[in-house]
C-alpha cells in the first residue's frame, strides 16, 4: 500500500501539538510515514514561560477586568496555546471557585476563541488567601 507524505492538516492533523526542531517525530498512518518539524518559540524566561505580547496582553486584560493586584500568565508548554494563570484580586471575595474562573475566562474570551487552546491551570485567590498561603511557604 503506497502513499505520499504531506504537511497538510487534513491528511495528518496534529491540532494541538508543536514540536521543537530538535525533537522530530514520525507519524505513521497505515504504511505511510511522515516526518514533520515545527518550531517552538525560543524566548524563554527564567521561570520557563515564554515572554510574548500575547501573554502580556492577557495579563493586562485580566488585571483591568478584575482590578487585580497580581496577574501571572505563563505559556505552559512553550507552544503559545496552553497557558497557566495565577490571579489575586479583591473581586474574588465571596465568589465560588467556579465563578472566579468564569470571571477570568470572560476577561480573556477573545484569546480563547482564537490563539489560546486551553488554560491548563488557574489559581484564583483573594489578597487574604494569597497572604495566608505566603505565610505557610517554607
From TrEMBL:
Name the Gene3D superfamilies for this protein. Answer: Phosphatidylinositol 3-kinase Catalytic Subunit, Chain A, domain 1
Q: Please list where the region (Disordered) is annotated.
A: 1-31
Question: Which intervals carry biased composition (Polar residues)?
Answer: 1-10
**Tell me, which GO biological process terms does this entry list?**
iron-sulfur cluster assembly
- Coiled-coil zones: none
Q: Name one Pfam family in it.
A: BolA
**Domain of life here?**
Eukaryota
> InterPro entries recorded for this chain?
BolA, BolA-like_sf
Cellular component GO terms held in the UniProt record: chloroplast
Protein family per UniProt: Belongs to the BolA/IbaG family.
PANTHER family for the chain:
PROTEIN BOLA4, CHLOROPLASTIC_MITOCHONDRIAL, PTHR46230
Name of this chain's protein: Protein BOLA4, chloroplastic/mitochondrial-like
Give the source lineage, highest ranks first.
Eukaryota, Viridiplantae, Streptophyta, Embryophyta, Tracheophyta
